[in-house]
Amino acid sequence: QRQARYLAHLISERLGACDVVTSRVERHLPPRDRDGNVSVRRLPTGLRGDFRHTVNAIMAFFYFLVHGRQYAVVHCHCLSPFVLGAFLGARLRGCKTLLKVCATGSQSDIGKVKRYYFGSWFWRLFLEFDAFVAQTPTMVSRIVAEGVPRDRIVMVPNAVASDLVEVPSAAMREAARQSLELPNRPTVLFVGRLVAEKRLDLLLDAWPQVVEAHDASLLVVGDGPERTRLEESVRASSHAASVRFFGWQDEPERYYRASELFVFTARDEAFGNVLAEAMAHGLAVITTREGLAEHWIRDSENGMIVNDDPKVLAHVLRRLLAEDAFRERLARQALADAREYFSPETVADRYLEIYRQLSSARGLRAPE
After folding, report:
1. φ, ψ dihedrals at 325, nearest 5°
2. What pTM was computed for the model?
């Protein structure tokens, strides 16, 4: 959601207007962006239960069947029945269509589609998209393996917003903690949806070994089906006072500003927006080799890469909390790399070029 909303904002700055068509249940999207150039059109698809996906597909289909002529390109964000309906309606109206595949592995967009009763047939329809976007080279390979021609895939990393030019000082982090009414002590941050794939359990298993050596805080920002279980587990532990759950936050930036370290131990991650955001906010990052870490994190240079062992994670956390100079060096390089790799201007310009290519008679250029 956040990435789609941010991309729409970037595109609207260059085109003057951009429509976001979504379902009514996406409550976190505002009816209109701050500058008024992004119009969010919520279709009445709030039905719950077995027929929700069918209703989503039908409503999206008829919206684009009726309104599709006003769009040259329909950019679909993640595979879903809603996107399938939008794609079919847009194609009937002659729109060029672009699909961004947002997840890989066992919880991949493509895997979820194929689990439906007619899933393989649906996927054959999706193969008719004019272009596909992958965020990493690994995703390109995985999409090709699903039957998508390589010359219809372009690689565009996600954009992250940050106006930082240097790592925040200790005084700035102290002020940010004070604004959140947090203890003024070294702070470790996790941001993400609380589902099994994000593996917050790995961090929570490592945390007791960390607080034995350091007076530190762990902040958990996010919501999801695992939240109740995880909170109950922490409350029953001896280190409950050092862990805080904050739930969904529409603007997590203030939590980045209050922290020194960011931990992201997800499994089957396509990109990892929050990891890129943490880098762009001048945090030293610890992650597993998934998503952007496969290609943009260099161990002990701009971040730390760990395996699935809580003891290894605890050791790295203790080291970075103890070695201020090393932690700050990682943070400075992470910030510099985020500004180079995930620049909003570069990403928006790349998408505009793709839109122009699709809407012209030439089609896509050779893949990058």
Report:
1. -65, -40
2. 0.84
